[in-house]
From TrEMBL:
Domain of life where this protein originates: Bacteria
InterPro entries, A to Z: CO_DH_flav_C (IPR005107), CO_DH_flav_C_dom_sf (IPR036683), Diverse_Substr_Oxidored (IPR051312), FAD-bd_PCMH (IPR016166), FAD-bd_PCMH-like_sf (IPR036318), FAD-bd_PCMH_sub1 (IPR016167), FAD-bd_PCMH_sub2 (IPR016169), Mopterin_DH_FAD-bd (IPR002346)
Every FAD-binding PCMH-type domain range: 1-177
Entries under SUPFAM superfamilies matching the protein: CO dehydrogenase flavoprotein C-terminal domain-like (SSF55447), FAD-binding/transporter-associated domain-like (SSF56176)
SMART domains per the UniProt record, alphabetical: CO_deh_flav_C
Database matches in Pfam families: CO_deh_flav_C (PF03450), FAD_binding_5 (PF00941)
PROSITE patterns, per database record: FAD_PCMH
Signal peptide: none
Keyword annotations of the record: FAD, Flavoprotein, Oxidoreductase
Name of the protein this chain belongs to: FAD binding domain-containing protein
UniProt xrefs under Gene3D superfamilies: 3.30.465.10, CO dehydrogenase flavoprotein, C-terminal domain, Uridine Diphospho-n-acetylenolpyruvylglucosamine Reductase, domain 2
Organism: Neorhizobium phenanthreniclasticum
Amino acid sequence: MKPASFDYHRPQTLDAALGLLARFGERAKPIAGGQSFGPMLNMRLARPEHLIDLNDLVELDFIRVSDAMLEVGAMTRHHRVATAPEVARSHPLLAAAAATIGHYAIRHRGTLGGSLAHADPAAQMPLVAVLGGARLVLHGLSGRREIAAGDFFKSVMTVDLAEGELVTSVLYPRLPINAGWAFELFSRRRGDFAVVAVAVLLTLDDAGRLGDLHVALGGVAPVPLRLDLSAVAPSGVIMEDTWIEAVSEFAAQSVAPEDTVQIPAVFRREVTAPLTQKALATALARSRKASA
Ligand SMILES: Cc1cc2nc3c(=O)[nH]c(=O)nc-3n(C[C@H](O)[C@H](O)[C@H](O)COP(=O)(O)OP(=O)(O)OC[C@H]3O[C@@H](n4cnc5c(N)ncnc54)[C@H](O)[C@@H]3O)c2cc1C
């Protein structure tokens, strides 16, 4: 199918883009990499009268690293996030997750902001943002605001974005130098969206006991699910083999996926435990290596 007709606008600055969005209101939609919105237009699932193309907003294509934070502009392509040395150094989990998005061509077009605004429940970028306590920077005509990733995602493809607002960047706390991290996904074919994805971040103290542990799951709930692990993995716990099994089993019991046309819920739940186990073992090994 072909899209319904629309007026095409290609603003050169963020202010101009915000002005167009304010002028046309709900009749306008932004497009970034077009990897998700293009098919929606073609299938006429979206019929904006005005399409606001963000691809000339070079001011939103950046990676900045400070002592505590990594900031990535919304128009930064997945490929750049996956390969930039400054992301690898400050947030290797983000780089590793970006490298698993779709295929090479998709990563060269798709953007960080587009992925977050689209909010597919199985997408990598929302999962990493929620796990690592990232904050999204949004701009509208009334100004700038920040929102925690955990509050931004409301439901399947539904986010806390007001009419006329754009995602402009994401602020990620840098990973501690001795952090253990892992990103694992199971998909039907390489490059497909995840059936289940798991992201893990942990630190160990000097004695090798658990400091912090964060585990988040994608594909098993309407939004990325960050687990409350206080009952099974309190700080100071000694890492035994049985510990990894117990946390993985807890993860599987915590999810309540729904049946979809292609994937039964029971399958997603069955994949969750072994995938979490693999991610925890990888993160633990990385943290031990970094602390050695
Ligand atoms: C075959 C295929 C496989 C894929 N596999 C994966 C995968 O494994 N994992 C994954 O995560 N994604 C996957 N994708 C999607 C891809 O990553 C997209 O790039 C991403 O979902 C959206 O980014 P985009 O820049 O293309 O956004 P677009 O498609 O341009 O826009 C998506 C939505 O976000 C809005 N939007 C865009 N930018 C902004 C902004 N700055 N502020 C506010 N709203 C904005 C648009 O209005 C639209 O509603 C796949 C796509 C294809 C075609």
